[in-house]
Specification:
The complex is a heterodimer of chains A (115) and B (113).
Chain A lengths: L3 E4 L2 E4 L5 E7 L6 E7 L5 E8 L5 E2 L8 E7 L2 E6 L8 E8 L6 E3 L3 E5 L1
Chain B lengths: L3 E4 L2 E5 L4 E7 L6 E6 L5 E7 L5 E4 L2 E6 L4 E6 L8 E8 L8 E3 L3 E6 L1
Parallel strand pairs in B: 2-11
Antiparallel strand pairs in B: 1-3, 3-8, 4-5, 4-9, 6-7, 7-8, 9-10, 9-11
Chain lengths: 115, 113
């Protein structure tokens, strides 16, 4: 099966610092990757769609300058939370697709806590 | 805008009983997914339903899709404690030229011994 690895699984950072989360497709090339955010006891909310070699497409209400997404290769996308604040604390999950009309595979998630 | 609703939001049931979770969506889509999420974990794929009338079964879980009614069901047979988790359905926008998944609200299932 397709494996998507997300790192780190947990991170604690201080307010005002930046945190980078990596999402890697280990055994396939991912033309598209997605980043989601999940608050406790809520559903997943799509933040942005990331295509290799092009700028990410952000969902309405998501600050692109705060949540920087880079999809530098067909196996790696990164999400950087800049100048993090406690309200950015959440569970962040990535997913990756091989191509159009294929199933998305999810990473293990990253629990971000900003103190 | 595609909207996906699940009901019930919370479900507490006894071991050995049967129950069904419903997933309704607002616009045409031929692709529907069911996922399981355990506390503190990411999503585990359960079923991928790709056409009207599709039915898939794995163990005590069975999922079906009616694209005309815009409805999918996840049926649990003879529930066991291990099935306690939150279940999400999700629909993609491939009919509209995008691959984004829209998730349902989730159903938190608790199986009581």
């Amino acid at each position: 099966g397709a494996v998507v690895s997300q790192h780190p699984s947990r991170v604690i950072c201080k307010s005002g610092t930046s945190v980078k989360i990596e999402c890697r497709s280990l055994d396939f090339q991912a033309t598209t990757m997605f980043w989601y955010r999940q608050f406790p006891k809520q559903s997943l909310m799509l933040m942005a769609t990331s295509n290799e070699g092009s700028k990410a497409t952000y969902e309405q209400g998501v600050e692109k300058d705060k949540f920087l997404i880079n999809h530098a290769s067909l196996t790696l996308s990164t999400l950087t939370v800049t100048s993090a604040h406690p309200e950015d604390s959440s569970f962040y999950i990535c997913s990756a697709m091989r191509g159009w009309n294929t199933e998305a595979f999810f990473g293990q998630g990253t629990r971000l806590t900003v103190v | 805008e595609l909207k996906v609703e699940q009901n019930p939001l919370f479900l507490s049931m006894q071991e050995g009983k049967n129950y069904t979770i419903y997933c309704n969506y607002s616009t045409t889509s031929d692709r529907l997914y069911w996922y399981r999420q355990d506390p503190g974990k990411s999503l585990e794929s359960l079923f991928v339903l790709l056409s009207n009338g599709a039915v898939k079964q794995e163990g005590r879980l069975m999922a079906s899709l009616d694209t005309k009614a815009r409805l999918s069901t996840l049926h649990i047979t003879a529930a066991v404690h291990d099935l306690s988790a939150t279940y999400f359905c999700a629909v993609d926008g491939s009919n509209f030229g995008n691959e984004k998944l829209t998730f349902g609200t989730g159903t938190r299932l608790t199986i009581i011994p």
